[in-house]
Write a structure and sequence with these properties.
alpha+beta, six-stranded mixed beta sheet, globular, single chain, 8 strands
Length: 166
């Protein structure tokens, strides 16, 4: 069984760059492919182009996040169902909430079969002008070369505190 661990990747101004370090002893083709799908997905997310973002998801994709996280409260849901809903979030709602200086720093990317785990830190400026800084863990499930499911975890209390009164 193989694993993939990345170095640091940063997203600024709609472009994501990924610095990669690998220890891939025994990595199988599915693991490598799943990792590549997720890294391509992050690049698409950073483009904010609806066509590029849609191209990385299955039509029945789902995105789960903790129910009371600040972003879910802003957009009105913590469970997005369907490619179109997720595309709207990433290309319209996310940029309206995190309006400037968005920076994503990958701490690790670990792949096993069709599952890829991404640990990251995100910093940005909120629409209120407040700074935002939080740690995340995403669990991606890949199906047929596309992202099928994402489970998102973060420090919900820290996020709500940074959003402040709305």
């Amino acid at each position: 069984m193989g694993k993939f661990v990345s170095g640091c990747g940063r997203y600024r101004g709609g472009v994501i760059g990924i610095v990669v370090g690998m220890d891939v002893v025994g990595m199988d083709v599915q693991t490598e492919s799943s990792r590549d799908v997720v890294l391509r997905a992050w690049k698409a997310f950073g483009s904010r182009d609806p066509e590029q973002v849609a191209a990385v998801f299955t039509t029945d994709a789902e995105w789960f996040a903790p129910p009371l996280n600040a972003t879910a409260v802003e957009v009105g849901t913590h469970h997005m169902v369907g490619r179109d809903r997720i595309v709207r979030f990433l290309t319209e709602e996310f940029p309206a909430i995190f309006t400037a200086d968005v920076e994503v720093e990958f701490r690790s990317v670990i792949a096993e079969g069709s599952t890829v785990v991404v640990e990251e830190r995100m910093r940005a400026t909120l629409d209120s002008g407040r700074p935002y800084d939080n740690d995340y863990c995403f669990v991606f499930e890949v199906r047929d070369g596309l992202v099928h499911r994402i489970r998102e975890y973060m420090d919900t209390r820290r996020g709500v505190e940074q959003f402040g009164p709305r």
